[in-house]
Amino acid sequence: MIRKWWAGLTMAAAMIVGPSPALAEDAAPKPAALVADQVPAVPLDMVERTRPYMEYRTASFVDWDPKTRAMLVSTRFGDTNQLHRVATPMGQREQLTFGSEPVYSARYAPDGSSLLFEKDSGGNEVDQIYALTNGRPRILTDGSSRNSLGPWSSSGKLVAFGSNKRTGLYNDIYLMNPANPDSAKMLIASTGGGWFPIDFSPDDKQLLVFNYVSVSDNQLYLVDIEQGTSHKLTDSNKPVAYEGLKFAPDGSLWAASDDGSDVKRLGILNLETSLFEPIIDEKIWDITGFDISKDGRWIAFEVNQAGRSVLKFYDLQNGSVRRIDALPAGVISGIKFAPWGELGITLNSNRTGTDAYSINPETLAVTRWTKSETGGLDAADNVAPELVEITSFDGEKMSGFLYRPDPAKHKGKRPLIISIHGGPEGQAKPRFLGRNNYLVNELGIALFYPNVRGSTGFGKRFVALDNGPWLRENSVLDIGAFFDRLRGDRMIDRKRIAVTGGSYGGYMTLASMLRYGKQLQAGLEVVGISNFVTFLENTQAYRRDLRRVEYGDERNPEQRAKLEEISPLVRASEIAIPLMVVTGANDPRVPASEADQIVAAVRASGRPAWHLLAENEGHGFRKKANADYQFWASLLFWQKYLLDDAQ
């Protein structure tokens, strides 16, 4: 799957409301980087009650080690996710990186002689590329520009990467011999958009480059490496989206594309004519990721069925397609073939956790490589989500996933929290809930994750239904339609419903509090947008044009006026229910000022507004100590304003 992750403003000094001296001994210690403004102290007994749900781990497949046939996974033994090597299925995890910041993507050289990875600092998303040499990380980039690790060449002599070091804004495309970082040479100078290197041709003479204009408009270029010239494969007047691109050993370029279709199909993009020939069509579902075996025999691909993953193999010799039925139901990611033919994946499911697996394409045998700890709890005891389908106010059909508490354990009607995903080009999927399983299993709170219009995974028509300022609030009306459905559920307590969400989901939380406040008890937003104009003006400059395509252009007077009109900040005085806000001070996407202004405005009206700020985080909390405390503070908020005597 093609993905590109796109420093916040410092908050004004805030009054910290801490425990009284009499209660201090009973309070959990707060991480030093957290500022808890009007957030009560967390009692130690809450920490103890929730502890098993805090101590889960996940293990995500990252790559194969060509030298040893070991699997590279990302998992956490300390405070952050680091790289580990697993030599054999269910073997011991050997930790390779030991930084205080989480490690993101990593890639072995084709011969296994080198391992490259990237990480940032404090969530600022200014990633640097490192080589792991004799167990020690060696920085390959300048330490100040924003970099993104791309593919190795087929020979293993070069790696492609994106960097903004020339302008400080947009990604240019570079080639480098990692053994000599000074060899880095710019291949393409960009003038905007989201440029990223995708794949080398098998003969290493060409590099496929991708420019993300919007979620539905991706432009492709084929660059002659020796000459430095490029050939555009796509038509700017014909927006097309891609979910994967990969050269086969025979030089053909495979793509998962919505060219000529509402959903993404798998096929071949002709390098001479630029015509897309679909080979595999899943009709109403997107194909959302794939890889090609090194011998050119197999293509493994994922089908997104309303959020659930189905894994299939396509046999290039005879054209047959086989489905893998031995995997637990859940969400698949990270599809990659080993040089010797085994397929590695990550499987995420609420009843198994998140772990790394492999599949043999010949026999379809599934092998589990990791079994991550879940705090002594049995993940199989967690509830499986159910798909809820509705028709919205205008006849548009949509769905979401409901995690319903066990009725044998939790009698009567249950409180409900609706959790809205960010993006808005994102998708709620039936994932492992982690800490939130405590809410479902122990407190009997139902959790619902909707996919409103604008979500990905349902075709390009659906993802564009919320574009621009005049269509934006239609997605808020979708929440109203979900409210109607869930409030009519005989197992839901219609008097105890709350809403939460992160990033764009934070905007949706605030907008829902305004529109449906009489049906809600409280709202909790995380790194959310409170005013579209100030957000667009203050988000990092390199991503501003990308967001204007989605939300509107604040430089246009008519659009600016509409963006202001639909922004929750201008109606903050009407928020009549309790609010909690969570912020990362280093957030480059939604700057901390968005939180500052909504908190100040709500408090000015005499309403409660708890505020939890992490000075060492960005767009969401990634360090375990911070994330644990965020959960406890959120739990205090839900207990005070949602649960009351409903337990």
Which SSEs are present, and which pair or pack?
Elements: E1 34-37, H1 44-54, E2 59-64, E3 71-75, E4 82-86, E5 93-95, E6 106-108, E7 115-119, E8 128-133, E9 136-139, E10 147-152, E11 159-163, E12 172-177, E13 180-188, E14 194-200, E15 206-214, E16 217-224, E17 230-232, E18 242-247, E19 253-257, E20 265-269, E21 276-280, E22 286-292, E23 298-305, E24 308-315, E25 321-323, E26 331-337, E27 343-349, E28 353-359, E29 366-368, E30 386-391, E31 397-403, E32 414-420, H2 437-441, E33 446-451, H3 460-463, H4 474-487, E34 492-502, H5 504-515, E35 522-526, H6 532-538, H7 541-551, H8 557-565, E36 579-584, H9 593-604, E37 609-614, H10 624-643
Helix pairs in contact: 4-5, 6-7
Tell me what you see in this structure.
By secondary structure, the chain is of the alpha+beta class. Helix content is 16%, strand content 34%. It contains ten helices and 37 strands. A nine-stranded mixed β-sheet has the order 1-37-36-35-34-32-33-31-30, sandwiched between helices. A four-stranded antiparallel β-sheet has the order 2-3-4-5, with no helix packed on it. Strands 6-7-8-9 form a four-stranded antiparallel β-sheet, with no helix packed on it. The radius of gyration is 24 Å and the shape is globular.
